[in-house]
């Protein structure tokens, strides 16, 4: 799991909660990767992202830097939010580009797809992103086949989801793909979470007037 300043907490901890529950049945190892070992703040990287100067943000401690990340990493999850738009994430983007060919799967949540797109790994692929931020994201990488109505997409070994809570849905869908529907249902029920199971329909596309493919 990548983390960077200004990440969306649910983008990270929604999928982690599902994987934590899955670890009751299958062994899981989760690493939090960042450019440094400094605490990573959910505070937006610019003052414009916190116009009322609210104090509601959290910090997490990375387990590894990008340079010390596990060599046997199988799945990389990229969260989104304001931090994913930062111009200061060149090392993170380079890491995604370098690491993707070694992965079994790449998963993006929300605007984390922008980082994957900037790394070039989504070019020619079907992908989706946060519907509230749709137009600001897709124009930055027209080489991607952006799917406006999808809750999540799967193209080869790349999985991408819509915004925030969709990170839970895509993780449960991924669990179903890897471990079967019974296990995914067991995980969702343990979380007391009602799954969104239709990857092709995101109700927030209509709410945010997103049109297109």
List the defining traits of the structure above:
Class I glutamine amidotransferase-like protein; alpha/beta; 213 residues; 4-stranded mixed β-sheet; two-stranded parallel sheet; glutamine amidotransferase; Class_I_gatase-like; Rossmann fold
Brief synopsis:
The chain has helices at residues 9-22, 90-99, 112-118, 134-138, 166-179, 181-191, 203-207, and strands at 33-34, 40-41, 59-60, 64-65, 75-78, 105-108, 126-127, 145-146, 152-155, 158-161. It is of the alpha/beta class and 213 residues long.
Number of DSSP-assigned strands: 10
Strand portion: 5-15%
Spans of at least 5 consecutive residues with low confidence? none
Rough outline: globular
InterPro entries: Class_I_gatase-like, DJ-1/PfpI, INH-QAR
Pfam families: DJ-1_PfpI
Protein name: Class I glutamine amidotransferase-like protein
Domain DJ-1/PfpI: 1-176
What does the model show?
The protein contains 7 helices and 10 strands. It is an alpha/beta fold and 213 residues long. The chain has a single domain, classed as Class I glutamine amidotransferase (GATase) domain (Rossmann fold, 3-Layer(aba) Sandwich), CATH 3.40.50. A 4-stranded mixed β-sheet has the order 5-6-10-9, with helices on both faces. Strands 1-4 form a two-stranded parallel sheet. Strands 2-3 form a two-stranded antiparallel ribbon. α1 packs parallel to α5, α1 crosses α6 and α5 runs antiparallel to α6.
């Amino acid at each position: 799991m990548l983390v960077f300043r200004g990440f969306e907490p649910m983008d990270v901890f929604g999928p982690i909660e599902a994987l934590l529950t899955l670890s009751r049945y299958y062994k899981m190892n989760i690493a939090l990767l960042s450019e440094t070992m400094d605490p990573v703040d959910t505070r937006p990287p610019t003052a414009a992202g916190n116009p009322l100067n609210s104090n509601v943000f959290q910090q997490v401690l990375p387990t590894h830097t990008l340079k010390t990340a596990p060599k046997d990493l199988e799945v990389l999850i990229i969260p989104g939010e304001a931090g994913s738009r930062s111009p200061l994430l060149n090392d993170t983007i380079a890491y995604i580009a370098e690491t993707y060919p070694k992965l079994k799967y790449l998963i993006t949540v929300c605007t984390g797809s922008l980082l994957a797109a900037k790394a070039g790994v989504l070019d020619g692929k079907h992908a989706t992103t946060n519907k509230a931020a749709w137009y600001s994201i897709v124009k930055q990488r027209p080489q991607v086949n952006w799917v406006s109505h999808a809750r999540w997409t799967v193209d080869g070994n790349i999985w991408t989801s819509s915004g925030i809570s969709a990170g839970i849905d895509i993780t449960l869908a991924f669990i179903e793909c890897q471990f079967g529907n019974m296990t995914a249902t067991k995980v969702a029920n343990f979380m007391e979470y009602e799954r969104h199971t239709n990857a092709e329909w995101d109700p927030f596309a209509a709410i945010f007037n997103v049109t297109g493919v």
